[in-house]
Write a structure and sequence with these properties.
By secondary structure, the chain is α+β, with helices and mostly antiparallel strands. The chain folds into 2 domains: 2-66, no CATH class; 90-224, no CATH class. Helices cover 31% and strands 26% of the residues. It has helices at residues 2-17, 31-39, 44-66, 90-97, 159-163, 212-220; strands at 106-108, 115-125, 132-141, 147-155, 171-173, 176-182, 193-198, 201-206, 222-224. The strands form 2 sheets. Strands 2-3-4-8-7-6-5 form a 7-stranded antiparallel beta sheet. Strands 1-9 form a two-stranded antiparallel sheet. The chain is elongated, with a radius of gyration of 45 Å.
Length: 226
């Protein structure tokens, strides 16, 4: 009699809470999990997914709170960033070649924007030594590698100074009427050129693209290497 009354109460409570009959077998979850899910209208699998999602979100928030504020863990530290090696100055490049020359090298104080390179080569006639002269070449190029201007230096009496020994100056280098300007040369042949002699040094400035006025500006800025 007592067992029947107890069973009746359990059925009444189950109906009131919308719980399944306690006598039913609920595989594969425990009766507690099954009753909680049924009481809220949620399937056992959905409850498990929600619980798993909650754990994942809680773990992520915990990790975020533990990270140092304002720190990007993927950003490299300043000590690991590469540093650019500064390019030697034009004067330093010319000075490095000066020992192989038998004339006073000169350097421009003004050049249009671009990249400069310095080299030496043989060419022309050396009136003091005989044979080929040792020449200094300063080349200015743009970002694509195209030549913008060339300054060629050698011993006095070489190159155009040798080819045109009695040429009459027709251009001023600064305030000095000592320059020889040859205009109308095609860019493929080097473009316009201005040349003159400074002490024991022959200098020629040419360009396949610059105007003659820009060549004269470069020429007026050229001075002996200090």
């Amino acid at each position: 009699m007592t067992d029947q009354a107890s069973t009746s109460e359990e059925h009444d409570v189950a109906e009131l809470l919308h719980l399944p009959d306690p006598n039913l077998v609920v595989p594969p979850y425990s009766q507690v999990e099954a009753r909680v899910g049924s009481a809220h209208g949620i399937s056992p699998m959905a409850a498990l997914v929600a619980l798993t999602l909650f754990i994942v979100v809680a773990t992520a928030l915990s990790l975020l709170r533990g990270a140092p504020a304002g720190r990007d863990v993927l950003a490299p530290s300043p000590s690991t960033l590469p540093t650019a090696t500064p390019r030697p100055s034009l004067k330093a490049l010319v000075r490095a070649e000066a020992a192989s020359l038998n004339f006073q090298p000169l350097v421009p104080g003004y050049l249009p924007d671009g990249l400069t390179s310095v080299s030496t080569r043989s060419g022309g006639r050396d009136p003091s030594r005989g044979g080929e002269a040792r020449l200094l070449q300063i080349e200015l190029s743009d970002q694509t590698g195209s030549v913008v201007a060339v300054i060629l230096e050698g011993p006095a009496g070489c190159c155009l100074d040798y080819a045109r020994p009695n040429a009459t100056p027709n251009a001023s280098i600064g305030a000095r009427p000592i320059g020889h300007l040859i205009d109308g040369i095609a860019p493929a042949q080097g473009g316009p050129i201005i040349w003159w002699v400074e002490g024991n040094t022959y200098i020629a400035v040419s360009s396949p693209g610059l105007a003659s006025s820009e060549l004269l500006r470069i020429a007026a800025s050229i001075q002996p290497l200090p």
